[in-house]
Amino acid sequence: MALKLTSSEFTTTLSHFHRAEIARMAGWRDRLDRTSNWAITV
Predict the structure, then answer these.
(1) I need a labelling partner for 20 at 20 to 30 A (CA). Which of 9, 10, 27, 34 fits?
(2) Is residue 1 in a domain?
(3) pTM value?
(4) Exposure of 19 by Cβ count < 10 A (0-12 exposed, 13-18 middle, 19+ buried)?
């Protein structure tokens, strides 16, 4: 059953999803940077 969203609800939902994806990507990038930095240091 699909929910009917108003324009503002859709915009809010999409912006939250976008921010979550950006945060997730930043987390992976941070892990990669730490791993690379550790490998170079050793």
Answers:
(1) 34
(2) no
(3) 0.62
(4) exposed
User: Does 2 map to a domain?
Assistant: no
- In single-letter form, the type of residue at position 32 comes to L
Q: Residue 16 belongs to what domain range? A: 7-39
pLDDT for res 1: 63
pLDDT digits (tens, 9 = 90+) for 7-38: 999 999 999 999 999 999 999 888 888 877 76
DSSP calls for 4-29? P--HHHHHHHHHHHHHHHHHHHHHHH
Spatial contact of 13 and 5, defined as CB atoms under 8 Å apart: yes
> What's the rounded Cα separation, in Å, for the pair 11 and 35?
36
